[in-house]
């Protein structure tokens, strides 16, 4: 596919799509050609804003002969099915993290791609970020000696972001929703397979479903150890250790987590059904269709900025 403009079809025009499609749309190496979503609002906006073809099902999208690559950004539990559909239609695939919900499903997806001579990439991922690739270069070069151990922490506000319970449940908490980024960076730096994994996860807020924290110890095949700690309850912010540069590489507002917690506190005491209805409505408004590429939904009255979305910027 060298020097070719890659024609991309998007499966699932949700919140992730609003955040990541501007990069696709602005890159001369790719052309956003089509998309599939079951929501009419998303399809209509895609046709009007991107001038692309819009299908109600992923199957129809994958049958489109003009598409080279399908970017799968439907909910986690559909990744396995939608990736296989795309591969069987002869398309290369980029699938959002987590790749799938079980190792068996991931292996089946890899087998399908290999058997057909197609590429499958899990992304977006931070192993392509310049600081991470540079760290890998330094490790490989040996200029600082042999890699002895890897230690990584990430403390963010994932569990107090304004997601409805159903979306948090769908996300499987921080282990499957946030962990893939951390594991993938560590795996790149470690440079191989691991020979052992030991971990435990915690669910420490009874008002939020799912696991919000974990501690994990890995050993690579060459004996290099790695420790991974994640806490998504929105207290400490590890960006403080990195000159207030956030995970996305942009400046992080130091009050972001406190803002998220204050916003969430306003919801905690609501009747659970009322809270869920409010948050579901908000989640809908964050998806492509209700908002356009790169746009953010308006916040409810009285909510603080900063803690609203997963990005790092202040003006959110
Ligand atoms: N890499 C990242 O940093 C990042 C960030 C956000 C989300 N994500 C990933 O992207 C995926 C989607 O997350 P989201 O927050 O955008 O979810 P979302 O619920 O906002 O969006 C999912 C979209 O898929 C559509 N959809 C669902 N089932 C469908 C079907 N059968 N056919 C066609 N369309 C269907 C929905 O209408 C919705 O528009 C998740 O796996 C999540 O982990 C990744």
Explain what the structure shows.
The chain has helices at 15-25, 40-49, 58-62, 76-88, 103-116, 130-141, 165-171, 173-177, 179-190, 256-268, 272-286; strands spanning 6-11, 30-36, 53-55, 69-72, 92-95, 120-122, 150-155, 194-202, 213-220, 225-231. It folds into two domains: 6-124, Rossmann fold, CATH 3.40.50; 148-286, Dihydrodipicolinate Reductase, domain 2. The two termini are 38 Å apart. Helix 4 runs parallel beside helix 5 and helix 6 packs parallel to helix 9 (179-190). The strands form two sheets. A six-stranded parallel β-sheet has the order 3-2-1-4-5-6, sandwiched between helices. It has 316 residues and is of the alpha/beta class. The longest helix is centred in the C-terminal third of the chain and has 15 residues, at 272-286. The model is unreliable at 308-316 (pLDDT under 50). Helix 2 links the parallel strand 2 (30-36) and strand 3. The protein binds nicotinamide-adenine-dinucleotide. The site of nicotinamide-adenine-dinucleotide has 22 residues, from helix 1 and helix 4.
Provide a brief overview of the structure:
With 316 residues, the chain is α/β, with parallel strands linked by helices.
Core attributes:
alpha/beta; 2 domains; 11 helices; four-stranded mixed β-sheet; 37% helix; 18% strand; binds nicotinamide-adenine-dinucleotide; disordered C terminus; Rossmann fold; Dihydrodipicolinate Reductase, domain 2; 316 residues; six-stranded parallel β-sheet; 10 strands
């Amino acid at each position: 596919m060298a020097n070719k403009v890659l024609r991309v079809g998007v499966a699932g025009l949700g919140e992730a799509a609003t955040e990541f499609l501007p990069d696709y749309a602005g890159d001369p190496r790719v052309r956003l050609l089509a998309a599939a979503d079951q929501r009419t609002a998303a399809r209509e906006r895609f046709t009007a804003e991107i001038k692309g073809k819009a299908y109600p099902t992923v199957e129809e999208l994958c049958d489109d002969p003009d598409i080279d690559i399908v970017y799968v950004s439907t909910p986690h539990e559909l990744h396995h099915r939608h990736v296989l559909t795309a591969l069987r239609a002869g398309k290369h695939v980029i699938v959002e993290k987590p790749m799938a919900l079980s190792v068996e499903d991931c292996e089946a997806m890899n087998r399908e791609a290999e058997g057909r001579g197609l590429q499958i990439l899990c992304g977006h991922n931070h192993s392509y970020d310049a600081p991470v690739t540079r760290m890998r270069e330094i490790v490989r070069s040996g200029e600082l000696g042999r890699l002895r151990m890897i230690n990584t922490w990430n403390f963010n506000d994932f569990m107090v972001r304004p997601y409805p319970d159903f979306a948090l449940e769908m996300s499987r908490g921080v282990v499957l929703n946030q962990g893939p980024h951390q594991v993938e960076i560590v795996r790149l730096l470690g440079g191989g397979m691991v020979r052992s994994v030991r971990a435990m996860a915690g669910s420490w807020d009874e008002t939020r479903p799912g696991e919000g924290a974990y501690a994990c110890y890995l050993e690579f095949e060459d004996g290099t150890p790695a420790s991974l700690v994640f806490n998504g309850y929105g207290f400490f912010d590890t960006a403080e250790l990195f000159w207030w540069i956030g995970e996305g590489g942009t400046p992080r507002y130091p009050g972001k987590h406190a803002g998220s917690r204050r916003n969430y506190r306003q919801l905690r005491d609501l009747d659970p059904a009322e809270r869920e209805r409010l948050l579901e409505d908000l989640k809908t408004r964050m998806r492509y269709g209700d908002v356009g590429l790169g746009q953010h939904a308006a916040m409810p009255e009285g909510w603080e900025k900063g803690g609203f979305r997963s990005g790092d910027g202040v003006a959110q």
